[in-house]
Amino acid sequence: MARFRRKRGKKAKKKMTGESPNASLAAMAPIISAKGIFSAIHQQVVVPQKSIDYQPSDKLVLVILSMLSGNQTISDVNWTLRVDKPLLMAFGYTKCPDQSVLQDTLNAAIEENVEQLRGVASSLFAQHNIFQRQFMGCSEPKQLTLDFDLSAQPSSKRAQKAAKGYFSNRRNRYGRQLARVSVAETQEVVIDRLYSGNTGSCTVFKELVLETEKVLNLNDKPTRKRIRLRLDGGFGTDSNINWALSRGYQLLVKMYSGNRARKLCQSVSNWVAAPTKTQQNNAQPATREVCWLKNRHRYCRNTRQIAIRIPNTKSKCGYSYCVIVTTDLTGCMSFVLADYDLRNGVCESVFCQDNQGLAQRKRRKHRFIAQQVLMLLTQIAHNLIVWIKQWGIDAIALGQRCEDWVKQIKRKWQTDFQVPESIFDKSMALLAERGIKRFTHQLFALSGTLTIKNGKLVRIVLKAGYPMIDRIAIALTALLAETNVEIALGKT
Description:
- This protein is an alpha+beta fold.
- Helix content is 43%, strand content 17%.
- The chain has two domains: 15-110 and 371-489, no CATH class; 143-359, Transposase Inhibitor Protein From Tn5, Chain A, domain 1 (Alpha-Beta Complex).
């Protein structure tokens, strides 16, 4: 009788070297692991789905990795992440599932998983947020500005909770509304909430404030007095303003009622020209006129109000009027106006960065719960990039103060490029000036060779032909100083 031998499986290689188009993203694997970013998802999120080759939480992590690697849709995983084995191994994976498997996991999510992901996003924000040391750790009283805004998310007509609503320059369009609370100074996202397409700003304001209080632990009035809410006219109803003032918040908000604003502005006679920042930079004449209101509308707390008029040929009176309400009783008018003008830039910038860098609008799901899961994964990816930027800046600043580290850097890179004293400041400026899109499409998209030993990343050789590669190499070296990962430059 023939005797058959059992085939022995191949032994796992202790050392693996391979090319990756996202080698610089792989460099973030030890940092993300040390900070426990992805482990929070594994521990807290339990999707009710059968596990065969992959855990559901692993697939949620891989969706975040696809966002960080610059993928525009979930289906792009088959062409990028799935074939990039060195990158997967750097994050502890041997392979990546098909895009259809990732879609099935998103569709299998339930309402409980949405709450679990919200808890993950809140806990990560509480651990790693940047503003806390600037706000809570400041000895002198300092205000924290929070921006509230809604952004239209187009979808198909048949998608769950899709409805006609306000979509800029897109009449009769169906979709949903994304409500966001962000920190103005750091551009961190505090909370994201998804609503039906016909939801207005004024109806969700109180809910957003209460959720923000839970995340930031704003439990008493003395703490809330250091928080300033910067809002557009959609939030500025009397009910919302009085409610926020009664809870102790500082406000900078545009009045909701256009008719009331026009009546209040008609009592003004001494109008003063107030050019916008764009008009000042381009040496253009001012089209906006402003004045302090003497006959102010009454709220539950003392406020100051600025009347604004802008020429409008479509209006019967020839102007469009609005009123800005502020609790700042000492600031000059130009400062208050400039501060409110910044609201448009910051809010729109944060949304645009996610739409362009993380393809937030392109990832659409029919099921409302699945879309909420994608929204929360995008929020985690957004904050992770903001934190990585700050971690890199802090690491360079810390190393720059150490003479031994500076000498080691100069000795290591002197054969590849010159290391002047200003290189460290330029490296920090490189990180500070880059937004979400530049990180996903440039800084995380540097190709190179990865060396992985015993399942851990030990060496990265980046191609030397990239612009400003000297500043990037120093930033990565500082960021990975405590992880024993070597950064080197190869030949072009």
